[in-house]
Amino acid sequence: VKVHDKCFWVAETKTNNPTTDVYVLGTLYYDGDPAKWKLEMGSPNTALYGQIKSSLCTNMQKALKNSNSDISKAWTGCSLVKLTETSVQSKITLGTKSLDPLQTKNNYAFLYANIRNSLQSYSSVKPSNYYYGRVTRVSESHLLTPCIAALLTTFSALLIITH
């Protein structure tokens, strides 16, 4: 059962394949330079937004494939969470069964560092489309509030059941 998609809790999908979401925050680059902001970039209903999502996700997957890790084998999807003039945030979904146990040891810290290093190294290739030129953060959540709300809901349910 998926408790909350904004929290770092393993989710059981319909195919019984546990997944985890990893959020990436950074600066959007295009062809070697910070991307020049256009108003339609911020609207999910525009062709440009779709192009950015597609090339950003493709380049993130390529970056993980080019690294020496097996993270790319765990890749199940990618989405664009938020795009502003100053930053871009995306979500990578990984199948936990495909992750190397060493990657997930110590609260996934090694996994996040590996993803960040892979994306940052790939930026030196300077692909001729959208990619992360600078990675600010790789983490299990982009919002703390939903996690707290989900925890409180779960805790409240447990209190009701036990009393």
From TrEMBL:
<keyword id="KW-0812">Transmembrane</keyword>
<dbReference type="InterPro" id="IPR036364">
    <property type="entry name" value="SEA_dom_sf"/>
</dbReference>
<keyword id="KW-0472">Membrane</keyword>
<keyword id="KW-1133">Transmembrane helix</keyword>
<protein>
    <submittedName>
        <fullName>Uncharacterized protein</fullName>
    </submittedName>
</protein>
<feature type="transmembrane region" description="Helical">
    <location>
        <begin position="143"/>
        <end position="161"/>
    </location>
</feature>
